[in-house]
Amino acid sequence: MIGIGSKNKAADFFKPPEWSKLPKHTQVRVEIFRAGNFIKEIPLAHKKAYTVGGKNEVVDIIVDDASVARLHCAFVHSSSSSFVFDLGSPSGTFLNGKRIAPHEPEMLSEGSEVRVSEKSQTTLVLKGLPLSKWQPPAWSKMPWSPAALFGRLPGADEFVSESRLSDQKCHVLGRNGAVVDILVQADSVSRQHAAVFHGESTLYVVDLGSAHGTWLSGERLEPNRPVQFREEAILQLGQAPIAFTLSMSGVAPRLKKRERAEADLSSSQFGSLVRTSVLQKTPSQTERSATGASESDVGDAFTAAKAEPAAAADAGRSGKTNADFRALLNSPVTLPKGMRKGAIEGKAALRKVQDAGSDDDELPGTIKKKQKF
């Protein structure tokens, strides 16, 4: 059972903090779901605070659940924001999956999900809240360095974006353009995903409770815990294609060849891909029209195979099919320059073998003599 309790008696058991006020956002409300099914909607705009608890007469919102305390939690408004308090409940109050500290206000945002215990089937979803930008901690400082973030896409030999961090204390990254400073448009990026802010003499980065996580140089960050953001560390939001490199001097760091290669495809990954994707012979005209593979595609495939000579020779003798190699052609592989140079040399070597008259029986992985690539 979900219901509304006595408003007068609720006030006798919970006193809102002095700073609480009637909300300016008059459409604020809570939508209540049970086991994923919508139950009802309760407006939250007419009082400074609303209490939530088990079946009794002292709360505003009654949740009939064995794990819910008699007086469990409360929604409290200021003039511009809304908060949730846990009122010392035994089973705890959970905001977006994380248990909150008792008697400490936690700011709510549009779509915030509150659960009255970890295993409760009841979820309270906040709606009608204004968009509010995440704010850095009180100890953050004004910028003391010309730091900047440089964005790079996989396989690129240069940076594609530059975001200066020297104009304000904090920069929020995410996909909601109304409340972020650095826009990152990707499905796996949260509306406010992460933030970078200045301390006394250190730059910090913090994950803002994102759904798909924030990675710093390959390590996933713990939500809502600031960590140091060091020179040339790489910041990744969820599975977004763009990655950000920090430069404390504000000058774009120089990309290393090894770094480009690792970002595209590691040598061992590439060798494994070649071993399972080798062309036995050039497709006929009919096959090319059916599959979309062109002669230039085939040439590119042999170029790629030569990048790992031992793997290519091994796979050539195994006599894999055209379909295997087309899988390689359709995969997002970008060869680093070092591999590409060796591959071009291999292409010329293959042509010499063909000109010498080798046939498919002798070399199952080669292309027939008079076919171009």
Automatic annotation (TrEMBL):
Biased composition (Polar residues): 276-294
Name of the protein described by the UniProt record: FHA domain-containing protein
SMART domains xrefs: FHA
Renumbered residue ranges of the record's region Disordered: 276-298, 351-373
Annotated organism of origin: Cymbomonas tetramitiformis
UniProt cross-references to Pfam families, sorted A to Z: FHA
Residue ranges constituting the FHA domain according to the UniProt record: 50-100, 171-221
Domain of life where this protein originates: Eukaryota
Segments traversing the membrane: none
SUPFAM superfamilies xrefs: SMAD/FHA domain
